[in-house]
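Hi! If you just cloned this repository, the fastest way to understand the data is to look at a raw example. We've pasted two of them here, unedited. The first protein comes first, obviously.
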Amino acid sequence: MNAKSPDRQYSGRYSILVAIMLVSIMGPIDGSIVNVTLPTIAEYFGVELSAAQWVPMTYLLVISSLLLFYGRLGDILGYKRIYLTGLAGFIGASALCGLSYFLPTIHWLVAFRAIQGLTAGMMMAVPHAIITASFPTIERGKALGIYAISISAGLAIGPSLGGFITYSLGWPFVFLVNVPIGIAGFLWTHRILPELKGRPGKIDIGGAVTSFVFLLSFLLFVNYSKGSGLGFANGIMLLVAVLAGISFFLVERRVDSPMLNLGLFRNLNFSFANISALLNFMSQYVMVFLTPFYLQRLLHFTPNNVGLTMTAFPLAVMVIAPFSGSLSDRIGTRALASFGAAMCALALFLMSQLTLSAASLDVAWRLAVFGLGTGVFQSPNNSAVMGSTPRPQLGIASGILSTLRNVGMVFGIAMGGAVLYALVSPTILQQPSLVGDEAATFLLGLRYAYMVGAILTGMAAITSIIRVQHPLR
C-alpha cells in the first residue's frame, strides 16, 4: 500500500463525523425531553407516577435489550444500512408518539415508545463503529472525544427545549420535533456515510431473545415489588428473570458467534470499570427521573422552569468531560473515576436535604455538582474500559459499555420509583400538585430515593478505586 492510500481511504472523515453527531444528538435530546415533560403527560392522561414511568423506561428497556444484537447485525449487514434503517424508523415512531395525544390512554404512548426504542437502538449501536472505520488510528481517540460532545450537548439542550416546547406548544411536540430534524438528517447521512459493507456471519438470535426476556422480567420484578412485593405473580417474574439470565449465559458460552464475549470479563479492570458505569448511571437516573416531579409537584414550577433548572446537570457534564478525559491520559483513570463518582454521591446527598421552600438556584447548583462529578467520572471510566480491551474486540467492548449504560438508566428509574412507592401512597403519587402534609410525605420519599442513589454511586467510587492497574493499550 502506498503512502497516499490512507489519505484516500479516510477522506471526508470529518464530514462523516459531523453527520453522525447531528443525527445522534436526537437520542439524548429525546430522553431528556421526556423526563422533563413526564409530570405533564401523567396529568394529561390522569395516571399515577407508576404508570407514567413506563414512558421513559420502556424506551430505555428496548434499547438496552437490543444494543449488542444490533451491533452484531451491523457487523454482518453493514453499519450504514443498520444506521439509516434505525433513523427512518425513529422518525415514524416519533410521529406516532406525538399522535398518541388523540388516543384515550397512556398505554398507546408506551407502546409507541417501545417502537421508538426498537429503532433508536439501531442508531445508537453503530456510530462508534462508523467513526472507528472512518478515521486512522492516530485520530481515533480525538474523533470519539469530539463525538461524545454531541451526547452531552443533547442532554444539555433536552431539558430546556422540552420545557419550552411543553409550555408553548404542548407535550406532543416534544416527539413531533424529531420528524423534520430526522428527515433532514436522513437525507444528509444517506449521502455522506460510506457503505462500510458487512462481513458474513451468524446472528445470535438465542442471545438476543434470552437477554431481552431477562431484562424485561427483572425490571418488572423491581418495579412492582414496591417494597412489599406482589406475592406469587412477582415471584414468577423473578423466577423467569433468573432462568432467562442463566439461559443467556449458557447460550453465549456455546454459540460460535456470541452476542456478548464473556471472556472479556476475566480482565478485572474491564469488569470493575463496567460495574462502575452501571452503578453511576443507576444513580444518575434516580435523580433525572425524580427531580422533575419534585420541581413541578412540590415547588410548583412551570414546565419551562423545570427544563431550565434541569439543564444545569448535563451542561456541567459537557463542560468538564473533555478536560477530564485529557487529564486521565496523563495521570491515569483510577483516581479521577473514583473522585468523580464520590462527587456524584455528595450531590445526591445534598439533593436529599432540599426542602419544600427551595428556590431554583438551590436545586440547580446541586445538579451542577452532580454534573461535574459525572463529567469527571465518565471519560476516565470509559477509557479504562476500552484501554483494558484487546484491539480486535473493541467493538464488542463498546457495545457492552453502551448496554450497561442503558441498563443502568432503566434500573435507576425502577429503583427510584420502587423506593418512592414504598413510602408514599398511590393517592398522593397521583396528584399533580401537593401541599401540606401530603407534600411532606412525598418529599420524605424523595429523600430516601436520593439517598439510595448516593449509595449506588458511592459503590461506584469504591469499584473504581479497587481496580487492578495495568498499562492502557
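Ok, and the second one:
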Amino acid sequence: MRHNEFGQPIGAPVDGWTARLRPPRTPMAGRYCRVEPLDPERHAAQLHAANIEAPDNRQWTYLGVDGFADVEAYRQWLGQVSAGDDPAFHAIVDAASGQAVGVAAYLRIDPANGVIEVGHINYSSRLQQTRAATEAMFMMMRRAFDELGYRRYEWKCDSLNEPSRRAAARLGFQFEGVFRQAIVYKERNRDTAWFSILDREWPALRGAYEQWLEPGNFDEAGRQHHSLARFIAAARA
C-alpha cells in the first residue's frame, strides 16, 4: 500500500503511461475463423442466412433489437450501427466455409485510460459452441492487450442473461458486480453485470487459450480432450 505525504492511501503507479491507439480496422486471422470489420454489403446476407436457421429468436432477447425476418431491413440496420468507430462492429467469418456466421464489436473505447469493452455479440447456431467461437474472442482480446497495450478488457450483459454470464466466466473474465437499473431497453429495465480481464491477468489466459485451441486438443469428431476451464485453472495455479 502506497501513501502520499498526508498519509492517505493511493493507487499503484503506472509509470510512463500514454494513451493507446484505437483498434485498427484490419482483419484478425486464426486457424478456425477470421474476425474482420463488418461490411453490410458483403456480410449482411450471410449473417441473416445463418441467423434464421435458429428455431426461434431467443438469441435476440438480450440484444438491443429483435431478430430481422427481412434481409434488407437487417442490412440497413447493420449499415447504421457499423458506420462509426465506436462501437466498431466485426463479422466473424468461418475459415472452412468462408461465410460470416457471427458478430462482435469493440465499444466504449477509452484510449486515454486503456479500457475497452467487447459486446454486441450475436453468434448464429453455426458458430455457437465451436472452436471458432472461442478463437474469435481470443483474437479480439489479443489485439487489445498485445497489439494495443490496453489495461482493462470489459464484458457487460443483462444480469438476467445467464448464458452470457456463463460465457464470461468460461472465457476467464472476473465478475465485478451489478449496476442496478443501469439501462432501459425494449421498454424494460436492465441491471448490468460487469466482468473484466486486466493486463496482468492476460499472459496466463493467453497461454490457456493457445493450449485449448491447439488441434491436438480435439479428437477426429471435434470433441475437446481438455476444457478451457482446465487450462485456465492450471495457468492461474
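That's it. A detail worth noticing about the second one: The chain is about 30% helix and 30% strand.
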